[in-house]
Design a protein that fits this description.
245 residues, alpha/beta, Rossmann fold, globular
Amino acid sequence: MTDNTPAEGKKPSGIPTDVPFLRTVKSYVLRAGRTTIGQAKAYELYGPANLLNYAPGAFNAPAAFGRTAPLILEIGFGMGEATAHIAKVRPDDNFLCCEVHEAGVGALLKRIGEQDIHNIRILRHDAVEVIDHMLPEDSLDGVHIFFPDPWHKTKHHKRRLLQAELVNKLAKRLKLGGYLHCATDWQPYAEQMMAVISAEKLLVNTGDAAHGGYATKPDYRPLTKFENRGLKLGHGVWDLVFRRV
């Protein structure tokens, strides 16, 4: 097996200089991480067709995707495993995916190339700014937020992504009947999500009242390796699915 890990202290070449780089993160923090040679190569090969520049103004989805289709926003896709899977099983939807981590973007670009995926576009920029300045109201058919940082310590709870202000912004950008799907493996965060999203008057819970309002995992969301490990250890996973009314 070829070792794609760069030598210590060296950064792989080939990442385009015009890829937007986030200098101030509004809703989470950048963490150090290595970009492999394979991920850097993916920037070269698949970046031009699949990376979008952050550009304030109404987002032109048909131009970005080359077609008109339901638009799903994903906030924070990690290494892109679930994102690629969902895009493959839902080829009739377009996925606009926001992630600030260089390695994660490279990993998803690599998956896009290897799996011949055509319905993903990536914005390497803070999702909150994208929502505020690129996505008008009634423009989204769905929003995915899977396993956001739970910020375990009480003093850090204010840093959690799912807060009332953001939920309201997302609700306003959903079309009538559009959905917000969140998932977490941290029960206290699931409970906060449930409280915050339930308080938004533009959204209605589609979950099971007998299970605290939490939803059965939709078929399109795969179990990741991390999630499978947690389930084997007895850890829970909570899905929340709300619809715009």
